[in-house]
Write a structure and sequence with these properties.
The complex is a heterotrimer of chains A (100), B (551) and C (167). By secondary structure, chain A is of the alpha+beta class. Chain A has 2 helices and 6 strands; from the N terminus they run ββββαββα. The chains are: A alpha+beta (100), B alpha+beta (551), C alpha/beta (167).
C-alpha cells in the first residue's frame, strides 16, 4: 500500500521535519500523518501551507512512502537521504587514513 | 594579504546588522520566503537537504592563520565540527541554523571575513591562481586586482540583480591554474608589445547544463582601465542577458547567441561612453592595495640552506610527499606546499576543526602566517622555507593531512552531491570514496600519473566534471542513481570540455568503469605520456570499446 | 499608492495613462515611450507636465533625444529580481543628465531601496504601512560604498582619498 506524508524544512534551523498526527512537525517520520488518497494529500498540504504562513516551515511537499518490510519508508532515495541523513555524516564516522 | 581599514570594518559590520534585521523580519513573518530568499543568498545562506548551508568567502583563496582559527571555531560552535573547501576557493558549512547566522557572521566580521555574495544573481567570489605571489612562473600577483574587483563588486547597486550568477577569475602566471576559460570573465595578466602589463579579457565560459569555454574579447586592456571595462561588460550583460529561462541566463549563452565579435563591439561601444565619466580608482588607492601584497620578509640567505636532501634520503614517505605535493617558489630556498584534503577513502575537501587549528599553527610557523584554499579543494602553504619542509610534513602527518596524492587520481574533486545538496540528482561523495579506496595504493597512483578526476552530483557541475580528465556526472533514472563518464576535459590554458563516452553506469559499476579507463590508458600510453595527452592522441574510441565491450 | 519622494512622504499628482486609454483632461500624465512617439503633439499641447513609464527592457537611448521634456520617468520592475531598471536609472542620471523625478514602480520593496537610491531613483511607489520609516532605515543601513555612482554621498575610494589628503 502506498501512503503519502508531508515533508518540509523547519524555518529556524533548516532541519527536515514531517507533519505529525497532532498537527506538529517532527524530525521523526514515525509520528507522521499519512494520506492514503489524493484528497487526503491535498488536505495535508493545506495544513502545511498554514504552517508556512505561520513561519514554522518552508517548502512542504508530499513524500511517497511504501511498505518496507512492515515499516513505512520513503520510496525515493532522495527522501531516504533526507530521513536518515548522509552516510558520510562526520558526527558518526571518520575518513579512512586519518591518524587518530 | 589585504587588511581591512576602518571603512572595510564599518562596512562589514553594517552588513551583519542589516542581515540580522532581515532574519528577524523573516522569523516574524514580515518577509515571506520568496522575499527573503534572495537576501539570504546574497549572504551565502542556502537551504539544503538537511539544514542551512553557509558559504563563507575566502577572497581569492587567501587567508591568515587567525582567520583559519576562527573558521575552526565556527565549525565547532555552529556546525558539526567540520567545513568543506569548494571549487571556488570558499568554505562551506553544512549544518547551520538560520537563527544563529547573524551571530556567526558577526564572529566572522571580527576577523575580516564574511559570506557576502557567495550566492545569488550577483558577482561572486573572485578567484585566483592559488600559487599567486609565490609561483616561479608569475608575471605579477593577480590578487591586487582580485581585491580591487572584490571591492568594486561588493553591493554594486547596478549589478545586484543580474540575470544569473557571475564568476570572475584572475591569473597572473604563464600557467593558468585558475581555470579562467570556464568563468564568465577570465582575466589573464600579460605583456603587450611595449612590455607593459595588462589583461587579456575572456568572456563567456561556464559549466553547468551547457558547458562553454570563454572567448577573448580584448587581447590587451591596460590595468588602469579594468574597472570601467568590467562595468561595461556587466552593464551589457545586465541589460541583454536572458531573464526568461534560468538555464539560458548566463553570459555564455549571450556570447553563443549573438557571437563574440558582436558582444565585443557592444562592450567596446559601451566602454567608450563609460570611460568618459568613470571615476577610476585613484592611483594612490591602487598603491595602497598593492602594498598589502608585497612579498613577505624572505630570508635572502635561504637559498644556501642545506639539509633537505638528507631528510629526503632518510624518510621515503617524506620524499614521496615532497615529490608530489611541493612546487617551486620564485624565491630561492623557498617552496610551495600543497596540503591534500583527500585522504584515502575520505570526503574530498572536508577538513575538521582540529585540522583547521593544526594548519593555522603550521602556517604561522612555516608560511608567514598565510594559507590558500584551492579550487581543487585542497589547501596550500605558499611560502615555506625548504629546510622547514620536513618539520612541516611531520606536523601535517600527525593530523592526517600528509596524503602525497596532489594531482593524482586520489586527488578527487567532488561536489557535496545528494548527501547534502538539494539540487543534486545523485550522490557524489560515496563514489569519490570508493574510487579513492580502489586506487589507494600510492605507488599505483604515481604510476598512473597526473590525472584529474572530477565528480558532480548533478548537471549544475559544481564538481567541475566537464573539465576533469575523467569526469563523472551523477544522474537519476527511474529512481536509481547512475553515473555518466566524460573524458578529455581540462581547465588549464589548453582548456577543453570533456566528451561523454557512452551510456551511464550504475553505482555498483562506476568504480570498475573508472578502473577500465585507467587500465586502457596504461596499456596504450607511450613512455612518459600523461593521461590527458594519451587521450588527445587516441581519442575516445579505445576507451569506449573497452568500457562497453560486453554490452 | 503611497509615494516616497526625496526622503519624505509625498502627494502624487501623476496619472499614468495606458496606451489605449483616454488622456485625463487635466494634470500631469505619464505614458509609454511608444505612446509618446505616436502622440507627441497632443501630449505637448496639453501644456501640463509630461512623464514616461518605461517597462524593463525598454532602452533609454530611444527617448534620450526628448529627455528634457519629461519631469518624471518611472521605471517598472516586473519582479524585484529583474535588475535592468538599475542600469537604465544610472544611464538616465549619469550619462544623460536627467534631473527630474526618477521613480521606481512595480515590485519594489524595502530591501531594494538602498540599491535603487544609489542608482539615482529619488521616488518610490511603495505598499504597506510604515513604508516611510522603513525607507529611511533602509537607506541608512549601509553608509560605506565601494563604487562611485551618482549618489552624492561619495564612494570608498573617494573617502579614503579625502582622509589621506586630510592627514
Amino acid at each position: 500500500m502506498k501512503l503519502d506524508i508531508v515533508s518540509a524544512n523547519r524555518l529556524s534551523d533548516g532541519r527536515v521535519v514531517y507533519l505529525t498526527r497532532d498537527d506538529g512537525w517532527s524530525e521523526s517520520i514515525i509520528d507522521g500523518r499519512t494520506a492514503a488518497t489524493k484528497e487526503e494529500g491535498t488536505a495535508l498540504l493545506a495544513d502545511a501551507d498554514r504552517a508556512v504562513a505561520d513561519g514554522i516551515i518552508v517548502s512542504p511537499y508530499l513524500v511517497s512512502m511504501a511498505d518496507d518490510g512492515g515499516a513505512f519508508a520513503p520510496l525515493h532515495f532522495r527522501e531516504r537521504i533526507r530521513l536518515f541523513g548522509p552516510k558520510t555524516d562526520r558526527a558518526t564516522s571518520q575518513p579512512a587514513g586519518r591518524v587518530a | 594579504m589585504y587588511r581591512y581599514d576602518e571603512f572595510d570594518h564599518a562596512f562589514v559590520h553594517q552588513r551583519v546588522a542589516q542581515f540580522r534585521d532581515q532574519v528577524a523580519r523573516r522569523l516574524t513573518g514580515e518577509l515571506s520566503e520568496d522575499e527573503f530568499k534572495p537576501l539570504r543568498l546574497m549572504n551565502g545562506l542556502y537551504l539544503q537537504l538537511h539544514a542551512y548551508m553557509l558559504r563563507v568567502a575566502i577572497p581569492y583563496g587567501t587567508l591568515s592563520s587567525r582567520q583559519m582559527r576562527r573558521l575552526a571555531h565556527i565549525a565547532r560552535r555552529y556546525d558539526k565540527g567540520f567545513g568543506h573547501i569548494t571549487t571556488r576557493q570558499n568554505i562551506q558549512y553544512n549544518w547551520i541554523q538560520l537563527t544563529e547566522v547573524p551571530d556567526l557572521l558577526a564572529e566572522l566580521a571580527e576577523v575580516e571575513m564574511h559570506a557576502i555574495q557567495t550566492s545569488g544573481n550577483c558577482i561572486r567570489n573572485v578567484t585566483a591562481d592559488h600559487f599567486a605571489g609565490a609561483a616561479a612562473d608569475e608575471i605579477e600577483d593577480p590578487r591586487v586586482w582580485c581585491e580591487i574587483i572584490r571591492q568594486w563588486s561588493t553591493l554594486h547597486p547596478e549589478f545586484s540583480f543580474l540575470p544569473r550568477k557571475f564568476k570572475i577569475a584572475v591569473s597572473g602566471a604563464v600557467s593558468d591554474r585558475a581555470a579562467l576559460r570556464v568563468h564568465d570573465i577570465g582575466l589573464q595578466l600579460c605583456h603587450n608589445d611595449a612590455g607593459e602589463i595588462g589583461f587579456e579579457v575572456m568572456v563567456g565560459g561556464g559549466q553547468g547544463r551547457t558547458p562553454m569555454l570563454a572567448k577573448t574579447i580584448r587581447e590587451f586592456l591596460p590595468k588602469a582601465e579594468l574597472l570601467s571595462y568590467l562595468e561595461s561588460i556587466l552593464r551589457v550583460y545586465n541589460q541583454l542577458g536572458r531573464r526568461d529561462n534560468i538555464y539560458k541566463a548566463r553570459i555564455k549563452i549571450l556570447v553563443h547567441e549573438i557571437g563574440v565579435e558582436t558582444l565585443a563591439k557592444m562592450v567596446e561601444a559601451e566602454w567608450h561612453q563609460v570611460r568618459e565619466g568613470f571615476t577610476d580608482l585613484p592611483q594612490d588607492e591602487v598603491a595602497r592595495i598593492e602594498r598589502y601584497f608585497a612579498p613577505p620578509p624572505f630570508d635572502p640567505a635561504a637559498g644556501s640552506d642545506t639539509g633537505l636532501d638528507a631528510a629526503r634520503r632518510g624518510d621515503s614517505a617524506f620524499d614521496r610527499w615532497l615529490e608530489q605535493n611541493v612546487d617551486a617558489h620564485k624565491q630561492p630556498g623557498y617552496a610551495i606546499a600543497t596540503i591534500s584534503l583527500k585522504p584515502e577513502g575520505g570526503v574530498p575537501g572536508d577538513i575538521d576543526a582540529e585540522q583547521m587549528d593544526a594548519v593555522a599553527d603550521l602556517a604561522e610557523r612555516f608560511s608567514f602566517d598565510e594559507l590558500r584554499a584551492t579550487h581543487q579543494q585542497n589547501l596550500v602553504l605558499p611560502h615555506v622555507r625548504k629546510r622547514d619542509l620536513y618539520a612541516l610534513w611531520q606536523g601535517l602527518k600527525a593530523h592526517g593531512l600528509a596524503t602525497a596524492n596532489r594531482g593524482l587520481i586520489g586527488d578527487i574533486i567532488a561536489c557535496p552531491g545528494m548527501d547534502y545538496c538539494s539540487l543534486a540528482t545523485a550522490r557524489s561523495i560515496p563514489v569519490a570514496q570508493a574510487i579513492s579506496t580502489r586506487f589507494q595504493d600510492l605507488a599505483r597512483q604515481k604510476d598512473i600519473g597526473d590525472l584529474r578526476l572530477n565528480i558532480s552530483g548533478c548537471i549544475n557541475a559544481c564538481g567541475h566534471h566537464h573539465v576533469g580528465h575523467i569526469g563523472i556526472l551523477g544522474l537519476e533514472k527511474k529512481g536509481v542513481e547512475n553515473y555518466q563518464i566524460t573524458l578529455g576535459g581540462r581547465a588549464d590554458g589548453k582548456a577543453a570540455i570533456g566528451a561523454i563516452i557512452g551510456p551511464a553506469f550504475s553505482a555498483d559499476d562506476i568504480v570498475g568503469a573508472v578502473e577500465t579507463v585507467v587500465d586502457t590508458y596504461i596499456d596504450l600510453r607511450q613512455t612518459g605520456e600523461p593521461f590527458i595527452d594519451a587521450y588527445a592522441r587516441l581519442g575516445r574510441e579505445p576507451f569506449k570499446e573497452r568500457l562497453y565491450a560486453t554490452h | 499608492m503611497p509615494l516616497i519622494k526625496n526622503g519624505a512622504s509625498a502627494e502624487d499628482p501623476w496619472q499614468f495613462a495606458a496606451d489605449d486609454a483616454a488622456l485625463p483632461e487635466h494634470g500631469p500624465v505619464a505614458v509609454s515611450p511608444a505612446r509618446w512617439q505616436r502622440e507627441k503633439a497632443a501630449l505637448r499641447a496639453r501644456g501640463e507636465p509630461l512623464g514616461l513609464l518605461m517597462q524593463s527592457g525598454e532602452q533609454v537611448e530611444d527617448i534620450v533625444a526628448d529627455l528634457k521634456e519629461f519631469e518624471l520617468i518611472a521605471l517598472d520592475f516586473p519582479t524585484f529580481r529583474d535588475g535592468r531598471p538599475y542600469s537604465s536609472a544610472r544611464l538616465l542620471r549619469e550619462r544623460y543628465g536627467f534631473a527630474g523625478e526618477l521613480r521606481a514602480v512595480g515590485d519594489v520593496s524595502r530591501d531594494q531601496f538602498l540599491f535603487l537610491h544609489r542608482c539615482g531613483f529619488n521616488a518610490f511607489q511603495v505598499t504597506g504601512a510604515g513604508a516611510l520609516e522603513a525607507w529611511l532605515r533602509a537607506v541608512s543601513e549601509i553608509s560605506i560604498w565601494y563604487q562611485p555612482t551618482n549618489d552624492p554621498r561619495g564612494a570608498l575610494g573617494v573617502l579614503r582619498h579625502r582622509r589621506a589628503a586630510a592627514e
